[in-house]
Structures are given as structure tokens and as C-alpha cells.
Amino acid sequence: MSDTAWLEDATIYTLDVKTFYDSDGDGWGDFQGLIEKLEYVDDLGVDCLWIRPFYPSPLRDNGYDVADYYAVDDRLGTLEDFREFTDRAHDRGIRVLTDLVFNHTSIDHEWFQTARRNPESKYRDYYLWAGDVETAYNTFNIFPEHEDGVWSYDEVADAHYFHQFFHHQPDLNVRNPEVREEFHDILRFWLRQGADGFRIDAAHPMLMPKGHDGGTLAEPIELFKQMKRVVSEEQSDAILLAEADDQPELLPYYFGDGEAFDLQFNFVMNAHLTYAIGVGDTWPLHRAHEIVPDVDGIGKWANFLRNHDEWNLLKLPEEAFHHAREAFGEDAGDSWIFERGHRLRLAEIYDNDLDRVAMAHSLLLSLPDVPVLLAGDEIGMGSDPSLREREAVRTPMQWDDSEYAGFSTSEPGDVHNPVIDEGEYSYERVNVADQLNDPGSLLSRVGELVDARSQCPEIVDGIYSVVDVDRDDVWLHRYDHGDNLLVCGHNFADEPREVACAFGPPEDVSTSIVGDGDYRVEGGDLTFELDGCDYLWIRADKWGKRAPEPGEVLALSR
Ligand code: GLC
Hints:
alpha/beta; eight-stranded parallel beta barrel
């Protein structure tokens, strides 16, 4: 078994330290606060945390504008706090992935400041410059609402610098071997502080043509293969996760035949899955299954329902893209940004229908590949549209109904982002404390599903197939795993549905693992009896020998 095999059955939870829990009342979440809340994450059942950027930063892009790769923003704690956090997480068997932004730095980074002032310094060539932009390579900017293009003039340097994101995020010159050496040093450094792997931000833009000549690396994937070699040499179980929102057919490239990224976000599945459940029709999910490339043997997908950015819909076919733009979000377009997505949280996409949110989690957690949960979605948090662009979906975690949602004891105005204190998503209505001991709450249901997944080795090791049914609002899939069969049913409709599929084993050797729906077995058929938005996972011994006990954990066979 390889040292990175832990990833196979991992469930990842992503959070931002500065909005998770404030331990010292200064309005900023911090690592000590996160340590206090580790029990909560552990109880939820997740075993890997992806922590978004926490480095010193002017926060013009929520920390994805790094000013120093080797430190912790002092509002969030110290390096020692970070180490203590990874130790405490490891004590609980929880691994930690940190976010590394290598496509660009902040303009505040010392490298850029030196580069602009001193053309002779080695840092000049860390970035990409053009004296005359008329003759320089040109391309589109990733934040079209905010930036006219990819070149900005710097007065001190008297030259233009290249940036695919905001103008305050100059692209690094990945063709410069010294820049790549810097990446390697940074990776080694954070592994030594306790990280178990990294989400590599903007992996796709890192490989794009860049700079005056629009050049790329001779062998682009070598960039990531080298990184993978560095992390494996330092720590054999460390992994790399790619954020590469590229065209479906180009995605396998990022796995480098098993020598680059271990894991990659599945943006294609994300747009289709979340949309399918939102419109109550399974066709987008069937389409995703057709267009997501098979990467068996070279890497794994990371599936998710929502992340901390806009819900990017570009991967949907054109008609569905326009439909999704109109159909979701209550306002006259206020949630729509960057010409490609909604700044809405999951519960809002589903009009606060918590049964639908729970069903979406059931589907996510019962599909193959690695699930990634976004902090706050497990309690059904909403957004604050009055906040600047994607900040709307990045409000503090709602812990209880006390002032500032139990997130902070700070004075009003001091908090990094305000808590949501009005409307149907306010902390008085949506919070952890209320849901913790309520077995019917969304939080309890999501916890139950995470637990169910960990008790189903079929999902990790079994043979997955989609079951054909004669309805377009019910989704069935199954796993064959040795003597075991696991069949999962999901009703996308608001009304009850009955759907049958060929099964085999008699009823007395089947068990319901999780979900409220009913089922019956007759004449070799399994019939799901599902109310609106119900889900149900059924396990059986294929040969009718023995039904596993509820909660029985079967030995993992790798
Ligand atoms: C990634 C991050 C996003 C950030 C961008 C630029 O897409 O998820 O939040 O703005 O990279 O670093």
C-alpha cells in the first residue's frame, strides 16, 4: 500500500482560519480558536482539513495575495500556533492541507518590491515585464469585472508587469529555475511545520502562456512533477491537490501519469451535480459522467458542492448556463459575478430547502472520489450580498445565537467580515448549537452521512456503476465489492417516487445504511420508496448469505 493511500478514503473539510473561531476577542479567527474547535470537526467525522491562506497578506484577495510565504498573519496567530494546531489535529488522526499560491504574489511581497526598484536584482526576473505592451503577448484577465487586461504599468519600474488575476497579484515567472527553487523551499518548510500536503492554487494559470513573449515551460507538467518529487522526498505520505479549472479533456494532464498531482478538484462535476439537484433533474449528472475523463490509476478527483469562490457555471452546456444564471439567486442579478457564476451558498441555491441540502450531501458522500465539504454548508449557512464580491460567501462560522454568532466577543466593527444577523440565514436561526443535539438537523444528517461513508469500503474499493431507471428525477448507483452490493437511491423530486432495479439478494440479507426512505425486495427487484428529496443506501450480501449488522465496519481490502 502506498504511503499516500490515506487519501483514498479521506473526507476533506475546508475552512478559513480568520472566519472560523476567534479565541482572543479581536474579531479575527485564529489558530488557537481552530484548536478549540477541532473537536467539532472531529465529531463531524472528517479526517482531513484544507486550510485556506493564512500568510501575511494585505487581503486584497482574501489572502490569495501572499506577502510572505514563511509566516502566519499575526492576526491569526504565530508559527508556533500553527505547529500546535497540526500536532493537535494529528493527535485526532486529522491531516492538514494548506493552500499555496504560486501563480502570483501580492505586490506587497518583498520580491516584487525589490524587483520594481532594482532592475539588476535577481528578483526582477521572478516576474514578467514588458516595456511596450503594444507588441507584448496579450490574453484575457480572469477577473474581467475588475481588470481591463493582463498588463499593468508600474511607475517605479517604468515597465508593465503581467498578471492574470488582479493587478495587485503579479504572476511569477515559472520559467525561472530560481523561482521554482523558491517553491520547493516553501513546500519543504510547511511540511516541516506539520502540513501533510498542499492545495496548489491556480495550477492552470501557472501553465498558461505568460509574459512579453507569451512563453510556456518546454515541458509544463515537469513543474508539478518536480514539486511532487520534492514533497515525497521530504514526507512520503504528503499529497498535492490541484485547482485546475481547465477543459475536461485536458484535466488528466495535471496528474502527470501518476507523477504530478495526486488529487484534482472536479469543477465539471461540481457545476453539473449542484445544478442537477437544483433543477430536480438527473440529466446534468449523466452528462458529467460522460464528459469527466476516466483517470483511474493516475489520480483522483475531489468532488464538492460549493467552494469559497463563485459557483462557476462555465462547464454547463450553453442553454443550461443561461438557465442557471436566471433560475438561481433571488435578486435582479446581484449574485451574478465575473460573467460566470453566482456568489451564493449551497442552502441559498436550494432556496433553503434543507432536505435538498441533505440529499445533495448524501449524493456527494456516496459518489466515488474524495468529497470536500465547505465549512458552514453542514448547517445551511447563507451569504451576505452587501459584502464585496466573493466576500459575500465568506462570513464567520455561526456557532450559536449569542452576539456575533459565538464566533467572536469583539466590539462591532472589529470583525474581519460581519456575521449574518438578519433574515432567514441569520445566526439566530442557523447555528451549530441549535443543530448539535437535534437528530433531525442538517448538521446531524451530514454527520451521519460522513459516518456512513466511512463504514462503506464499497465506495472506495468497489466497482461503481450508474443504474438505469425509467425516471429522470431519481438517481440510483451501485457498488459491487466482493460479496457485497451497495445501492444508493436519491430522489431529486419534491414528490414521492418509487423506482425499481434488478437486485438479486432476498430481503433478509439487506440492510439500510443511512437515509429516511423505505425499500422492498421482491422477485429479485429492489424498489426504493422515497419521499421528496429522500435518499437511502442499501447494502446486501450478493449471494444471500449474511446481512452485515448496521454500523458494521467491513475490513478494507486493498
Ligand atoms: C483561486 C482561489 C481564489 C483566488 C484565485 C487567485 O481561484 O480559489 O479565491 O481569488 O485563485 O489566487
